[in-house]
Design goal:
By secondary structure, this protein is α/β, with parallel strands linked by helices. Helix content is 40%, strand content 17%. The protein contains 11 helices and 11 strands.
Length: 253
């Protein structure tokens, strides 16, 4: 559990910087904060290692800004996914150092200097059309403190491109492979490397791809062992899985 917010609050009370009523109100906010439209879980960082992530889809810009501001007030970094430019503009009014990745549709803010783990997360896409999902994954990795590299557009239509990048692929700690169409690339990578592979199907493809269902089923049915599969277009989810593996590895491994 992270005791720093409680220690800070106790010191403020001891120094007469806040009243007893303020103390109890802020203490309740350390665990759960009611924003009227959102019940914010401030203990998620203590439980899972990273604060609650904001899913912006169907939220108003003001709702996203309220949540981002409440997280930042705790001196926590934050990440928002599926964010529009309007979401970003609303957040930026309150948090000047917030960053927007337009292609990946993310908003991020680092409250402190991020000390990146030495383990290498490699994000690979089969095609250029898969890059938006990869950019969401990359931004997630960066704000979580992972050392991340990307290789884009090395799908099975030109399989020799995999071997052109072999050194980077073979040295990775975990590989995330993002593909649409028939979703074949994770099987190729999974059959070549000893590290875990996390597959992300994308909604890229013609009609028979069924908005990514064909790629999803192909990845779930892969005969290459050691492949895990997340939901369609879920670059964030793939990195969160990788993060929970890497954060428990010793730095010298």
């Amino acid at each position: 559990m992270n005791y720093q917010p409680i220690k800070k609050l106790l010191k403020q009370f001891k120094d007469d910087a806040i009243t007893m009523d303020d103390f109890f109100r802020e203490l309740s906010h350390i665990n759960v904060e009611d924003l009227e439209h959102t019940t914010l879980d401030h203990q998620r960082k203590a439980r899972l290692g990273f604060p609650e992530v904001i899913f912006c889809q169907n939220k108003t810009p003001q709702q996203v800004a309220d949540i981002a501001g409440a997280i930042a007030k705790q001196n926590y970094s934050f990440l928002a996914t599926r964010a529009s430019l309007d979401h970003f503009k609303a957040v930026k009014r309150y948090i000047k150092k917030a960053q927007h990745n337009t292609l990946g549709r993310t908003i991020s803010f680092c409250a402190q200097t991020v000390h990146h783990k030495p383990h290498r997360l490699l994000i690979i896409t089969a095609g250029t059309s898969d890059i938006p999902v990869a950019e969401e994954a990359k931004e997630t990795a960066l704000v979580m403190g992972l050392t991340v590299e990307t290789i884009y557009d090395i799908g099975v239509a030109g399989i020799h491109r995999v071997f052109h990048n072999w050194d980077k692929i073979h040295e990775a700690t975990i590989i995330i492979v993002i593909a649409g169409m028939e979703g074949a690339l994770p099987s190729v990578i999974g059959g070549l490397v000893p590290c875990p592979v996390i597959a992300v199907p994308t909604s890229v493809g013609y009609g028979a791809s069924f908005q990514g269902i064909a790629a999803l089923l192909g990845m779930l049915n892969s005969c290459a062992p050691g492949i895990s599969v997340v939901n369609i277009d879920n670059g964030f989810g793939a990195v969160y899985c990788a993060y929970r593996i890497i954060k428990n590895l010793p730095d010298n491994q």
